[in-house]
Design goal:
282 residues, alpha/beta, 2,3-Dihydroxybiphenyl 1,2-Dioxygenase, domain 1, 3 domains, four-stranded mixed β-sheet, three-stranded mixed β-sheet, 9 helices
Length: 282
């Protein structure tokens, strides 16, 4: 009797924990994994206690072996690809768990074998469905990159002149105090950092060579909504001190683009693929 009291308490709390976690807003990935681990330990403990009482036909043992094989394949396939064993809390798995919880209490009854067959059929369906969902998830799995792109850094001859240019010509924002050597500038979610060339050389104890005139080794690329905006922003950049490299030009690949340089000679492209000029004429 004490076993069955503990069995009912453990099984009931196991069925309620997920519901209560969602109700109270305390769901978490680690909680879901601990729940799966608790289920596994619970099944082992119950199996250890009740296994000697089981008298099942050979066909039913074969069915149980098939279910175990499908579950094992599911676990291996998820671990090989996404490096963790994935348990799917599907409705079929939950229903199987509930039926198993009730069915165990029929051990020794005359109708236990038919009940066991029903549970085994549900369990096989749940395992196959789980495998399908895991493989679908594996196909869409994208491994996390080793790095997250951070920012572009420009080494400047004059931080103030560069800050004035980018804030006035392109609308960058900054909280720079005008004193610190490191400058962060933002354009929406994008960030550029500035650092004086002489301060960087002092920091790394090395001298560097810098391009004279236009720096043709890299570019900053800015998109604008339409062709007309390319022309407008090109002129605005010139009005705030940019030097022209290429005036607005419509390329064969149907992009309107232009190039200017900042105070340190860094190339800046302004472009768009939306031809509002021809749309108006149409």
């Amino acid at each position: 009797m004490p076993f069955w009291v503990l069995y009912v308490i453990a099984g009931t709390t196991d069925m309620l924990d997920g519901f209560l976690a969602r109700r109270w807003g305390v769901e978490s990935k680690i909680g879901a994994r601990l729940d799966s681990l608790a289920d596994f330990v619970f099944v082992l403990a119950v199996g250890y206690k009740l296994f000697p009482l089981l008298k099942l036909p050979d066909a039913l043992w074969m069915m149980i072996g098939l279910i175990a094989m499908v579950k094992t394949v599911n676990a291996i396939s998820s671990y090989v690809v996404i490096h963790r064993i994935e348990y799917m809390h599907t409705k079929a798995n939950k229903l199987t768990g509930f039926l198993l919880f009730i069915g165990v209490m029929t051990i020794g009854r005359s109708y236990f074998i038919p009940v066991a067959w029903v549970i085994a059929c549900f369990a096989l369906f749940a395992a196959i469905q789980e495998g399908h969902l895991i493989r679908s998830k594996v196909k869409s799995f994208s491994p996390q990159p080793r790095f997250k792109f951070n920012t572009v850094g420009l080494f400047t001859t004059d931080n103030k002149a560069t800050v004035d240019f980018y804030t006035k010509a392109f609308g960058f924002t900054t909280s720079w105090d005008g004193i610190q050597p490191n400058v962060e500038m933002f354009l929406g979610d994008n960030r550029i950092i500035l650092f004086p060339r002489d301060a960087f050389e002092q920091m790394v104890s090395k001298k560097f060579l810098y391009p004279e005139g236009i720096n043709g080794t890299m570019e900053l690329s800015l998109d604008v909504p339409t062709f007309a905006d390319v022309d407008k922003e090109y002129q605005n950049a010139l009005n705030h001190g940019a030097k022209s490299v290429l005036p607005p030009t419509t390329e064969p690949w149907r992009q309107r683009t232009c190039y200017v340089v900042d105070p340190d000679g860094n190339l800046i492209e302004i472009g768009s693929f939306v031809d509002n000029y021809n749309r108006k004429s149409e």
